[in-house]
Amino acid sequence: MRRLRIAVLNDFDIVVRGLCDMLADITDIEVVDVLVGDVDLDVAVDVALYDTYGRHGLPWDELRTVVADARAAHVALFTFTFAPDLVRRALDAGIDGFLWKGLSAEELADALRRIDAGEQVVLGPSGAARSGQDGYRWPFDLRGLSARESEVLALLAEGMTNRQIGEALYIGRETVKTHVAQIFDKLGVRSRVEAAGLALRHETFARQLRALQQRTGSSEEPSEDRRVEPSDGAG
Fold first, then answer.
1. All structural domains of the chain
2. In this predicted model, what pLDDT tens digit does every residue of 45-70 receive, in sequence order?
3. d(Cα 141, Cα 28) in Å, to the nearest integer?
């Protein structure tokens, strides 16, 4: 039986491992390349699955690099970010799949098979889809944070305001404020500075920060106080 060869890409190793665990029991799918903080594929794959967790909007430059890589027959996004204009732009840019993170392992596997067969597949939120199933993990999931709250925390730790986080994740500012309030409650902190400090002591967040600095050419280690803007609070 032919096995579908998959590459998994994301800045966070916990997210990559979660996706690998999610697909581990699918007998006709094999993860053959795992990239953390990198988009340079090591081997030829049928589908490169790019998890957008922790990114500022959709990472167009990196996605173009993956699409242009002859070692990736197809490219799919695994994301919470759904808007018609973004989906159309992604498909026009050569992305073959736009897949919501609430999909179950079987739903994701079926989408990857369809993409491998030559379809452009868009699967967004639906009543049947679920979030946080089948081994998919993210930073601070064991502290009760949802995948979306964890993404908000990652961007908050980079010093983004509620408005900037909303623009990056394509959600409303009031929704961001609700997420921030939930983050404070679940992590037992009282301010953005405390939340960012806790995040930056988490190794996967620290690794993502270093990767971001390398991409932007910055070698200076930002302090928590300079990175976080407490004036844009949760309330």
1. 4-123 (3.40.50.2300), 141-227 (1.10.10.10)
2. 999 999 988 777 788 888 999 999 99
3. 28
Which regions in the chain score pLDDT beneath 70? 126-135, 204, 206-235
217 φψ region: left (φ > 0), alpha (ψ -120 to 50), beta (else): left
Of residues 60, 49, 61, 43, the one with CA closest to residue 15: 49
Q: What is the pTM of this model?
A: 0.70
Give me the sign of the Cα torsion angle 35, 40, 46, 48: positive
pLDDT at residue 230, as a whole number: 37
Which pair of structure tokens corresponds to residue 15?
């997210």
Q: Which residues sit opposite 33 in a β-bridge?
A: 7
Q: Which helix (H) or strand (E) holds 5?
A: strand 4-10
Give residue 207's pLDDT.
66
- Do you know the residue count of the chain? 235
What is the rounded distance in angstroms from the CA atom of residue 139 to the CA atom of residue 149? 10
- Within 8 A by CB and 6+ apart from 24, the residues are 31, 135
By CB atoms closer than 10 A (0-12, 13-18, 19+), residue 1 is exposed
